[in-house]
Design a protein that fits this description.
This protein has eleven helices and seven strands. The longest helix is centred in the C-terminal third of the chain and has 19 residues. The strands form two sheets. It has a five-stranded mixed beta sheet, sandwiched between helices. Strands 3-5 form a two-stranded parallel sheet. Helix 1 runs antiparallel to helix 9 and helix 7 packs across helix 8. A hairpin with a 2-residue loop joins strand 6 and strand 7. It is globular. The N and C termini lie far apart (80 Å). The chain has two domains: 218 residues, 3-Layer(aba) Sandwich (Collagenase (Catalytic Domain)); 34 residues.
């Protein structure tokens, strides 16, 4: 069975480390057999406004799509933008196109990290857009990936649990199969991310190569102060003691 292709389109200027995100998402190509994720080359950012009604996002997308050079037309197109979507939605999808926003996640909802949130939205979008299943979000919060989350903080619960409720599970298995359900469950339980101290794990490599600690960093671009604090903790203890001693010495000399 050939995999369906999923284009992840960074159509707003990223306010996060896009290369770390690419590494994180492209690991999904190694752990399941239904989708192949890829990031097309994008040379201009088309969604730079603060707010977009959902209708405008979808009506403008055909023009945006025509500017991207795809080797082959993808089965699904998932845009990641930084703007407010419609009535303050996390994401919206129609047909085989969806939009996810990073807006407000750092300020109000992280942790989980931005990358875990985007993973959640991408997988939810793929299932909502899958024509073989008839999935819709439900307004009661069950800790399910398809909760509507009227209270948006409930999304922290859904991401952390990595759970699909019995009703949604039945719909997926009956229409796509148990193997597909198992692979989706394997993605959303996040065990594949691994531990920071395990050599070669996704978490380890994010820290080693991209300076992103998924256990404590939000995933958004770091401020200068964040970078100073990060480097400070990596300084050997002996040097920190010498620096503190020198500062105290200067203060005492100044007072005398």
């Amino acid at each position: 069975m050939s995999r369906q292709s999923v284009a992840i389109l960074l159509t707003s200027k990223p306010n996060y480390d896009e290369f770390a995100l690419k590494y994180f998402i492209l690991n999904l190509n190694k752990i399941q057999n239904y989708y192949e994720f890829f990031f097309p080359e994008i040379h201009s950012y088309n969604y730079n406004g603060q707010y977009y009604p959902t209708d405008l996002l979808f009506s403008s997308f055909e023009n945006v799509k025509s500017t991207i050079n795809f080797e082959n037309q993808p089965d699904y197109l998932i845009n990641i933008i930084t703007s407010t979507i419609g009535e303050n939605l996390f994401f919206t999808c129609r047909g085989n196109v969806s939009f996810i926003t990073t807006y407000t996640w750092e300020k109000y909802f992280s942790p989980p990290s931005l990358f875990e949130y985007l993973l959640h939205c991408i997988i939810a979008n793929l299932l909502f857009m899958n024509e073989k299943v008839n999935l819709h979000s439900h307004h009661d919060t069950r800790g399910c990936y398809f909760d509507y989350t009227f209270f948006k903080t409930d999304d922290k619960v859904d991401i952390t649990l990595g759970y699909i409720c019995d009703k949604c599970k039945k719909e997926i298995i009956e229409n796509v199969g148990e193997e597909y359900f198992r692979e989706i469950t394997n993605i959303i339980n996040r065990e594949w991310i691994g531990e920071l101290n395990k050599f070669g794990s996704v978490a380890y490599n994010l820290k080693k190569f991209f300076k992103f600690d998924i256990d404590k960093d939000s995933g958004f671009n770091k401020t200068n102060w964040d970078k100073i604090k990060e480097n400070f903790y990596e300084i050997p203890k002996e040097i920190i003691v010498l620096i503190i001693g020198a500062i105290i010495g200067v203060l005492i000399t100044h007072i005398i």
